[in-house]
Write a structure and sequence with these properties.
310 residues; alpha+beta; three-stranded antiparallel beta sheet; 17 strands; elongated
């Protein structure tokens, strides 16, 4: 994806902040700026929506990041500096100049849409709040986002665009269960945006992935009375794998080995992933034949139940 390009016509306009004129464009750190002013049982949203912390762009080990607004204004806070970005303004963070954490949010400190990029490498939109801090020869960028936005974003990344809605719903439940119950997977943040944790794309508003997340909102997979972090893989080769008999103590769900009719017919012996839990190819095949997301989950996670999150 291409980095965000500034419009040349924007460079002539000035933004005034308590007497200081700031030209739209890159605002590098290092310059002091003044402070500016059953399936029917879908439970209701909790008083405070659940959040998830996801480290982004970690594979690139970035030494420079750029932040810009998507539609609304964005507040960048660096120490006692408060910088409001609007339009095509871009704020640049360089590791060599960073002495304190950078925080990005809406003007009231809540979640907002923003664009984050590594020049020449990747450009992506996010919804949430962003914290950037110096790490070991790299910048560490962590997005804190609403759990359901994260679920929809993962479903959009993990499943084909034209996958049947019931397969997407099964993926949404597995994704949510993983986020909600899995212990931290990294020292610097809870999850990453790669397949080490769960692959993440841009917010999936208005897509079938978003619909799948909304129609299964708050639902988790439960085993023996407790939710568990559901595993899944792309192609199981005809049968999923069990943890039983592998010599390791099983403290949670044992992941029973079950046959996958779709992969037996279409990709026998072909395996992509660890073969635990949901087979995404098999789920798509089942949904295309009329199976509901509950039937799909029953197939790949036998002995489990759905429960609403607290």
């Amino acid at each position: 994806m291409r980095p965000h390009a500034q419009s040349s016509s924007e460079w002539g306009r000035l933004v005034t902040c308590r007497g200081l004129a700031i030209r739209p464009g890159r605002l590098p750190i290092g310059r002091r700026l003044p402070t500016c002013p059953t399936l029917l049982l879908l439970c209701c949203l909790p008083a405070a929506a659940q959040k998830v912390d996801i480290g982004v762009f970690s594979l690139f080990r970035p030494i420079e990041l750029r932040v810009s607004p998507v539609s609304n204004t964005v507040l960048v806070t660096v120490g006692d500096q408060r910088i409001v970005l609007e339009g095509h303004q871009v704020f640049t963070i360089r590791l060599a100049q960073l002495s304190s954490a950078v925080h990005v949010s809406s003007r009231d400190g809540s979640a907002t849409d923003f664009r984050l990029s590594i020049p020449g490498k990747i450009d992506r939109k996010f919804n949430g709040t962003l914290a950037i801090r110096p790490g070991d020869h790299k910048l560490i960028a962590v997005v804190t986002m609403d759990l359901e936005i994260a679920v929809a974003s993962v479903v959009a990344a993990e499943m084909p665009v034209r996958a049947p809605i019931e397969a997407l719903k099964a993926q949404a439940v597995a994704t949510r269960s993983y986020f909600a119950v899995s212990p931290p997977r990294h020292d610097e943040y809870t999850f990453c945006d790669t397949t080490h944790c769960q692959f993440l794309r841009e917010p999936a508003r208005g897509t079938t992935a978003h619909r799948a997340a909304q129609e299964t909102r708050n639902l988790l997979l439960e085993y023996a009375g407790k939710p568990f972090p559901a595993q899944y893989s792309a192609v199981c080769g005809g049968r999923t794998r069990s943890l039983e008999g592998e010599g390791e103590p099983i403290t949670g769900y044992p992941y029973y080995s079950v046959p996958c009719d779709y992969c037996r017919r279409h990709s026998p012996g072909v395996v992509q992933g660890h073969q635990l839990g949901l087979c995404q190819s098999g789920a798509i095949g089942m949904a295309a034949s009329g199976a509901t997301f509950r039937a799909i989950l029953d197939r790949y996670y036998p002995g489990t139940h759905l429960q609403p999150s607290n």
